[in-house]
Amino acid sequence: MMKTTALVASRAIDLFKTYGEGATSVAALRGVSVEVLAGTFTAIMGPSGSGKSTLMHLLAGLDTPTSGDVLLGGCELSALSDADLTVVRREQVGFVFQAFNLLPTLTAEQNIRLPLDLAGQDVDEAWQQTVVQALGVADRLGHRPGELSGGQQQRVALARALVTRPAVIFADEPTGALDSVTGAEVLALFRRSVDEWGQTVVMVTHDAHAAAVADRVVLLADGQVAGEVLDPDPDSVTAAIRDLATV
Length: 247
Ligand SMILES: Nc1ncnc2c1ncn2[C@@H]1O[C@H](COP(=O)(O)OP(=O)(O)OP(=O)(O)O)[C@@H](O)[C@H]1O
What we know:
The protein contains eight helices and ten strands. By secondary structure, it is an alpha/beta fold. It has helices at residues 52-59, 82-92, 108-119, 125-134, 150-162, 180-197, 208-211, 234-246; strands at 8-19, 26-37, 41-45, 67-72, 75-76, 93-97, 168-172, 201-204, 216-221, 224-230. The radius of gyration is 18 Å and the shape is globular. It starts with 7 loop residues before the first strand and ends with a helix. It has a single domain (8-246), classed as 3-Layer(aba) Sandwich (Rossmann fold). It binds adenosine-5'-triphosphate (ATP). Residues 19-20, 26, 28, 46, 48-54 line the site of adenosine-5'-triphosphate (ATP). Adenosine-5'-triphosphate (ATP) is lined by residues 19-20, 26, 28, 46, 48-54. Residues 10-247 form the ABC transporter domain. InterPro entries: AAA+_ATPase, ABC_transporter-like_ATP-bd, ABC_transporter-like_CS, ABC_transpr_LolD-like, MacB-like_ATP-bd, P-loop_NTPase. Pfam families: ABC_tran. One of its GO terms (molecular function) is ATP binding.
């Protein structure tokens, strides 16, 4: 769906990332430029080793590029001190991981509030209430992660990401540990957070059905952008991935 306001939430500017030096060095990204508009859902796909995780880590300010720059929430990350980068990461970025990554000793509610507690920020109670209701975890707030199903844990993880209203939520294979029905439910919640709340989401996935929930699929191959699919459906995504393999 086209948006009338085209604010950029995240931008990769000619990113290169090389791991190691000399003969054993690996060029994980080789000149990647990508623009993610605010309030859109972008999937990143590509073969194993194509640079998806590297790109996501750079976009989120978790790692620094060898050259190039990243724009996040209006800041050029290369211009920031380490201290400022930590603040930008904390305030502008939410994460959802394949393995949920909730703290086992905390309740669901304590997990959801943890980013704000760590930042010493007040919780917007009305917003938290809206999020936990919409995500269907309002009656699970007192439970610890071990007492929740995988789908419930991922809903809590999404609530934790949403509660800070970050510029971008980065999701790394968020349905990889879920069965297909539960995974589809979680993806629908990501979709809803974009459509209802204007949240920006960038998701790495290997699953064409998961990618089809996004507005756009960016295809990586061998450390470079190799194409994109707009308004994807599982068939168009599968065809695009197949074409990549034959290039
Ligand atoms: N910390 C690191 N040190 C050295 N090489 C690395 C490191 N991280 C990634 N690489 C290499 O960089 C390349 C890109 O890796 P990356 O994890 O970004 O790919 P990916 O597309 O996410 O792969 P997958 O789908 O298997 O997770 C690979 O060749 C990988 O081996």
